[in-house]
Each structure stands twice: as C-alpha cells, then as structure tokens.
Amino acid sequence: MGSSITGFCLGLWFYQHTGSVTQYAAVRTATLLPSVLALPLAGIFVDRYDRQKLLIATELCAGVCSLILAALFVGRVFTVWTVLPTLALASVCGTFQSTALSAILVVLVAPQQRTRANALLQLGLAVSEIVAPLAASALSSMVTLASILAFDVASFACAAVVIVFVRIPKSPRSGSRHLTAAFMWHEFGRACNLIRRAPGLIGLLGLGAVVNLNIGFVTTLVVPLIMSVSDEMALGRTSSAAAVGFLVGSVTMTLWGGPKRAIWGILAATALQGGFMFCASLYVSSTTIAAAAFGIYFTIPFVSAGSQAIWQQRIPIEAQGRIFSIRSTAAVVILALASVIAGPLADRVFEPSMRAGSGTLASVFGPYIGIGPGRGIALMVALLAIFTVFIAVVAWISPSVRQVGNECSVRDA
C-alpha cells in the first residue's frame, strides 16, 4: 500500500510541477525497467542466500530509498535526474522481495493450501490497487510529498519488523559461494533446463503467456474502445469494474481454494476469460464492456494462483527463485510487447479495415460487430478471444498439460 501510494503521488507531482508527459513517463519507466533487468539476478540470490535475511535487507534498503527521496524533496533538489537512480534501486528491491516471497511460501504452507495462499497474496495486491489511487488522491491535496514519503519509510520498517518475527524454515541452498558472471549464466541455464525437462510446465508457461497477452491488449485498447462509444465517466466505471472483479476473484479463490485439480480451474478460467472478451467485442455498449471487464479480471486470480501452486509443487525448493524470476521476466516482457504492438495494429490495420465504405473487412465482420470508429479494436479483441479459447482447448487435449499437477517435482540435473 505504501509503495502504491508513493508511486502514484510521485508521478502526479512530477506531472503537476513540470507539465511534461516525458518526465512523467521517465518516472514510470524507472519503476519498471530496472525490475525486469534485475529479475534473473534476483532468482539466483533467492536460491543462494537466506531468504528471510534477504527480505529484511531489501525492505530496509527500500525504506532508505524513500528516506533519500524525502531528503531530496526537503532539500529542494527534487528533479527527475536526481530521483531516478533512487527509484531504480527501490524497484530492484521490490523485485527481490516478490521473488523471495514466492519461494518462501512453499516452506510455510502445506501443498493443499498453496492455491489459497497465493490467492491471499493477490487479495492484498487487489486491495492496494483499489485503495491506493483513492488514498493517494486524497493525501496529495492534504499533505506534502515529504509526509507521504515518510509514511512509505514507516511501511517498510513495519514490514521488516514483521518478517523478523516470522519463523521461516531454512531451505536448501544451491550453487557456488562466488557469484561470478560465469556462475550466474550457468545457474540461469540450469533453471531453463529444468523447465525444458517438463513438457507440462512449458505448456503452463504458454497458457500464462496467453493470459498476459490478453491483459496487455485489454489494458491498452480499453480506453479507445470505451471512448468510441461513451465518455470518461464510462471509462472510470469500467476501470472500477475491472478492479472489483480482480478483488472478488481473489476473495473467491482465498475462501474456496479452487478445484482439487488446479489445472482444471486454470483451463476453465482461461476459456471463460476468452468468452468475456468476445462479449465485450460484440456489443456497442459501455455497460456491457464494464461487465466484461469485471469478468476478465475475475478470472485472473484463478489462473495465476492455480498456476503458481503447480509451479511451487513441481520445482525443487532450492531452484524456485531462479524459476520464478524467469516466469516473471517472461510475463513482464509479454505485457510490454502487447502494449507496444496493440496500438499500431489498431491504428494502421484493424481500424482502417472496419471503416464504412472503404474498409476491407467491414463487409465480412460488420454484420456481427458493426462498422465505424472502435469496431476495428472490437475485431482485434474478438479474434484474441477466439484464440484464447482455442489455446485452452488445445491445452486440455494435451496429456502433458492436463496431467501437469499430478507428477512429482522435476529434479535438478
């Protein structure tokens, strides 16, 4: 919550005081790009060193970063170029924290409860995603940025104290004591080899890629899709519906725990996600799109929590940091790739092809989804929805994927 509020307020402060979208984007990039670059290294550290101490150290380091930002603000040297290095370091700390937390959960929670535990972690994320923007908007008008940063420092300190008193069993360590470049590359190769030796896990990774591709496209295209049929108020309702859907899905998975066979829930939720996307593409109505957004985000916890539980079961404890970092890297890259290609595809290919009179695809798909502004985007969403359902069916037909939750863990060579 502290990090979400601080990130929102920092971006807002820079935009309000500079009026520069470029500087605002630079602040956002500084919180994302370093984490992507640090993920492979984070996995190796998590597998090699004491995870509890690593968590405590990174919490404290992130708190010091917020303290430095507060000092820069009070000292009136608060510019993009002075804060970017500190933001980058804080982002790296967050990467180490999330990777360590995923690996620690395995030794804290019984196998049959891991799906619910993963959903509970997502519930915390969902609450912060809903509450943080509202709290940040209110706080930014009442207190200074230095006060908000001080709150962030306190939140990291509280987290570090909590971790001190949590009894975390020691997990096996892997690899050499010397973190040379050759050693880290070797460890990365061993992690990739573990995944290659389990075809079911490769299929599960592919399913996750499809879901991340969907989310990347949806988050990029929802604004022009809504604005083509309605206004800013409808866009706000759609964003709220998506956040509430994610929250309800997380609560449901936390209380229920999902089906006994996690892969069934993953495949069903993936297919259902495709169905909701298809509904959003058919009807020119902001209400229908908001309902579809609720459904799409409702399915995400079922896919991610169930998938995480299977990976935690199949991968040896001493290798989970490296594997989870590879998964996270793939997810972030796919999300970014979807965001990059969605815009040009919509502007240059699909929107022109669905124009009245001159569109090459308008006569084929127009009777079903309509023609005109926004209908090319709707066609993109419809095709992606059909592809999603197709992938879920193919995964179900594949014995290696359908049985992925039944095998014993893959052993490191």
Structure description:
By secondary structure, the protein is mainly α. It folds into two domains: 172 residues, Growth Hormone, Chain: A (Up-down Bundle); 211 residues, Up-down Bundle (Growth Hormone, Chain: A), CATH 1.20.1250.20. Helices cover 80% and strands 0% of the residues. The protein has 16 helices and no strands. The longest helix has 34 residues. The two termini are 40 Å apart.
Instruction: Report the β-strand fraction as a percent range.
Output: under 5%
Number of helices: 16
Percent range of helical residues: over 70%
Give average pLDDT, whole number: 82
- For the record, give the distance between the C-alpha atoms at the N and C termini, rounded to a whole number: 40 Å
pLDDT < 50 runs, ≥5 residues? none
How are helices and strands ordered from N to C? HHHHHHHHHHHHHHHH
Number of domains: 2
Number of strands: 0
> From the helix content, strand content and strand pairing, which structural class follows?
mainly alpha
Task: Please tell me what the overall shape is.
Answer: globular
CATH architecture of the largest domain: Up-down Bundle
Entry summary:
The protein has 413 residues and is mainly alpha-helical. It folds into 2 domains: 2-173, MFS general substrate transporter like domains (Growth Hormone, Chain: A), CATH 1.20.1250; 192-402, MFS general substrate transporter like domains (Growth Hormone, Chain: A, Up-down Bundle), CATH 1.20.1250.20. It contains 16 helices and no strands.
